[in-house]
Amino acid sequence: MISSTLDGTEAKSLPTVELFPKERTILEQSAMVFRPFGLDEQGHTIRDLSGVSIRAVTVFLEKLITAQRGEPAGKEAVEDLCQLLNDRIKDPVYHVTPEFLRNPWNSYSYEFTSYLYEFCERISGDPRFAFKAGAEKISPIMLALTRPFSISQIFTMFPYFGNKFTSGSAEFRVVEVTSTTAVVAMRFTERTLRQFGPYRRRCACLVCQSAQGIMIAMASRIHGLSQAETIETSCIGNDDAWCQWTIRWQEERGYGKRFWRTTSPLEQARALLPNQEAFSKTDSAQAGLLTTAPLQVEPRTSAQQHFTWFLWGGLVGLLLMAGVGIVNPMVSLGEVLLVGLCPLLIIGILVNRRLLRESERREALIQEQITFVESRHEELREAYLEQEQMRVELRRKVAQLTALHRAGLSFGSTFERDTLLHQVLEALTHELNYNSAMVSMFDPGDQTVQHIRLIGGPPEVETFAQSCRIPITDPDSPEGTVVLQGQPLLVKDIEIIRHRLHPLNQRLAELSKTKALVVVPIKTKDRIWGMLTVDRSHNQTVTDDDLELMTTVASQVSIALDNASAYQQIEEWNEGLEVKVKERTEALEQADRLRAQFLSHVSHELRTPLTSIKGFIQNLLDGLTGPLNEKQQRYLVRMSENSDRLVRMIEDLLDRTRIETGRLEVHPADVELEPCLADVLEQLKPLAHAKQQTLEFYSADTKVVVWADRDRLIQTVVNLVQNSIKFTPSGGTITVICAMPNRRTATVLVRDTGPGIPPECLDKIFDPFFRIQQGHRAGPKGLGLGLSIVKTLVELQGGEVSARNRPEGGAELSFTVPVHAATTPHRSDPQTTGRHILVVDDDPDIQQLLHDRLKAGGYLPCSALDGWQALSVLQSREFDGMILDIGIGQIDGLEVLRRVRMTNQRLPILMITASGSQELAMKAIGLGAQAYVLKPFDTHQLQQMMDRWFGPV
User: How far is it, in rounded angstroms, from Cα 867 to Cα 889?
Assistant: First the structure.
């Protein structure tokens, strides 16, 4: 397509563009390609359309929506318009506000105007919005300037007014003007058509509708005539070369009557508005220019003078007529009248000549005033546009500095190279609004550049870029200039250097449709890491500001890459150290596991013979083998006490092993705290009395039910009280207090009157195997595991443990346990008839012990050595209870339990295990066992469980 410039010379050909039909709007384009106002990419001021027109459209939209839905809806519509426009403007520095759109001093691009019209049509729901808004575009200053002229004169000046408000973005011409018709035409410049792009037809139609709205409103708005009619004879939207219209209006009333008005142009502008308040400050400022050089109106009007002249002329004529009749009576009446009219004719000639002179003088004054106002208006407008551009540039600088600050923070937040590079490209495309950005790493070894990552292009372009590995050998090539010489590159037109690029980069520029780009090296003092590339597509270009900005970004990126490289090197060193530490740790863990396994194995092996020893000692003490003398009784008691001590040590070792291997479990349930503590203390009173110590217990006033494992709770209290008894001298006092400081936890405190805990040991008192040294004296015996087990048990149940020295002397150990809703434990009613008990254990000593104890309690025991035998015996007769060892041969105790429960749900079964873990025992409870006993067990505890589940004798 060949276009012509306004001076008639032929312009260069526009690139061939496939034009879309008029039904497709520019809103299909996700973002504006050109800048909406300020300076364009070439540094020229954008003045395609005056801000007066945009203000008129904005005000009309608000008035239209206000009339339909109310004032709040009108204001909201303008806010929505700004939001929609800002969503299509990529650079935030060009975002608009309602106040900005209402400012008539601005100038805008035609692309921005097309978006504005489309969004206004969408918000208003009126497909003829552009046409109706056109009638509102005649501003007060325009009304004032055109008021002295007739409609035909105004259309004769159509090119003048058109250029005034479009500033050369369109070409106007007058084809024909008569007193009642005018034929005018308009076409767009090459720059404007480029802004329309493939949506030229639709955009041209919108501009044509707006222009027609202006033209039909001229007659009514300026001179109060009826609205004109317009006929569109051609349109660029229909692929015509020009938009041409024929405008018809009614014949004007006498122009002279309007010419003699003496009101100033400012008063004329105000008179055309609905009321004085509607005359905004902005319009007043503009119209105020008109009063700078006002017309000088004479105090006495010419019409009055002329009337006086004609009056005197009439009197002179009458006198002449009377004189002629007296002097010469023979004169005819026609001659007398002719003589009498002569003075009036002379006066008429004089008045006409004076009117012509006054008309010429007034037209000269009007033209002088128009010229003056035009020049002042343009001066102010230029000053405002320059100021606005300065504000845009300031906002751009602030936005860039803010983006650089945020980018610097994000660059320093990671030492991962891939993450860092991704953040760099994201910042360039999203924060700094480049179309695409690419980072390339340079390998100085083989002199190649590898495009690592590209953001902003289609997926196929990103894939192609990452597949490129480009050798750099020529330092004068564009790539060599950057990575070999370390110099930045600013390319405002890619075509200038396209032939010098590597073929792969040529292909990449073609795929990404790059028009201009900036390439800067990423370098530190002694190394060039690579290069950073940003580009502009479409009709945008890059400037020296972009080069300066990218140099700053590259400097930050190089520092971040240097830090990431140092961090990676440290990480590699750390990995080597970690491997060595891991190897040593695994060796230590293996030794620790072997130790734990050894302790567990030894403990397990010791429990079974200890069970027999304790049981037989207890049988001797209970007189089952006959009477004992005093010395035998004393020896047996000491043997029993030392057996208990050995059992506790073994149990502590097992618990410690379970803790270290993570197999120590707790099974919390509702536990009433006060009875539980009372039972424990009752059992420990003999131990305290043996040292002439007083064991006291104070409980809370209210019933306290906690959520805890009862066995582990008892174990905790026993360990703490035994520890206090151990360290408290004879005659001392141990006090146990149960308190409930809040609704969530209960606290148990164990106080003693002993020597207390050395301050340096308070932090270590709960460490495994820690024992307090008491000078040269032999301290209490033990392994130093009791308190460490207490700490673990309490924490597993959600509590805390602490130790302190009391001011009045002695130590205080305490722990907390969560409070839970109290429940009533369910107890099965033990059977009281029949006492046949089946004992299933493959150890003869344990069988003998249980037989002796059962017989002493009045029960009738029967034995089975393995699981099959036990199942056979159970089928042959009925029993009132069964004691079952989990670790029996053939089939284990759990399988026996499972089979028994398939046919018999009522038989009470007590489980015995020497496994050293409660896991199997708890599994047995889940399969239907009533209770379990861990080896070595206390015979009195066993007796109580038998009485409970099998029934008393």
Answer: 7
| Residue showing tokens 């141990």 | 734
Q: For every residue of 519-552, which 3-state class applies, written as one string?
A: EEEEECCCCEEEEEEEEEECCCCCCHHHHHHHHH
Nearest to 438 by CA among 506, 520, 360: 520
Nearest 5°: CA angle at 889, between 885 and 892? 55
Task: Give the tokens for residue 4.
Answer: 């012509």
Q: What is the 3-state secondary structure (H, E, C) of 806-874?
A: CCCCCEEEEEEEEECCCCCCCCCCCCCCCCEEEEECCCHHHHHHHHHHHHHCCCEEEEECEHHHHHHHH
Cα diameter, the chain: 197
Structure tokens at 584: 């040593």
What one-letter code names the amino acid at 537? Answer: S
**How many CB atoms are closer than 10 A to CB 202?**
23
pLDDT at 268 over 50: no
The pLDDT > 70 percentage for the chain reads 84
Which of the residue ranges 205-209, 467-471, 918-922 would you say has the lowest mean pLDDT? Answer: 918-922
Length of the chain, in residues? 953
Distances (CA, A) of 4 to 148, 207, 242, 585, 804: 34, 20, 12, 85, 99
User: DSSP class of residue 938?
Assistant: P
Check residue 272 and give its pLDDT: 35
What token pair was written down for 663?
A: 């197999």
- Structure tokens of 255? 């122009």
For the chain, give every domain's residue range: 26-253+263-291, 302-405, 669-818, 836-950
Q: Is the pTM of this model over 0.70?
A: no
Residue 822 backbone phi and psi in degrees, to 5? -70, 140
The two beta strands, 881-885 and 931-934, are unpaired
Cα-based distances in Å from 105 to 94, 96, 627: 16, 14, 123
Can you read off the two tokens belonging to residue 428?
């360039």
Contact present, 886 and 892 (Cβ < 8 Å): yes
Q: Are 130 and 206 in contact (CB under 8 A)?
A: yes
Tell me which of 406-410, 431-435, 559-563, 614-618 is least confident.
406-410
Contacts of 494-503 with C-beta under 8 Å, sequence gap 24+, read 501/477, 502/470, 502/471, 502/477
Q: Give yes or no for a contact between 672 and 704, defined as CB atoms under 8 angstroms apart.
A: yes
Helix (H) or strand (E) holding 35: none
Say if CB 516 and CB 493 are below 8 A apart: yes
439 bridge partner residues = 453, 532
Out of 47-61, 100-114, 151-165, least confident range: 151-165
Exposed, middle or buried: residue 828 (CB in 10 Å: 0-12, 13-18, 19+)? Answer: exposed
Distance (Å, rounded) from C-alpha 801 to C-alpha 823? Answer: 26
Mean pLDDT of the chain: 80
Report how far residue 710's alpha carbon sits from residue 918's, in angstroms, rounded to the nearest whole number: 14
Rounded Cα–Cα distance for residues 375 and 381 (Å): 10
Cα distance between residue 702 and residue 142, in whole Å: 92
The CATH class, in words, for 669-818 is: alpha beta
Q: How far does the chain reach from its first CA to its final CA, in angstroms?
A: 119
Distance (Å, rounded) from C-alpha 142 to C-alpha 778? 113
Is-contact 749 721, C-beta < 8 A?
no
> Do β-strands 669-672 and 705-708 pair in parallel, antiparallel, or remain unpaired?
antiparallel
Residue 204 CA to residue 201 CA, distance in Å, equals 5
pLDDT of residue 394: 79
**φ/ψ of residue 229, rounded to 5:** -115, 145
Of 151-155, 225-229, 259-263, 881-885, the one with minimum mean pLDDT is 259-263
Residue bearing tokens 């493939």: 198
Fold of 836-950: Rossmann fold (3.40.50)
Which fold does the domain 26-253+263-291 belong to in CATH? H-NOX domain (3.90.1520)
Look at residue 698 and give its three-state secondary structure: strand
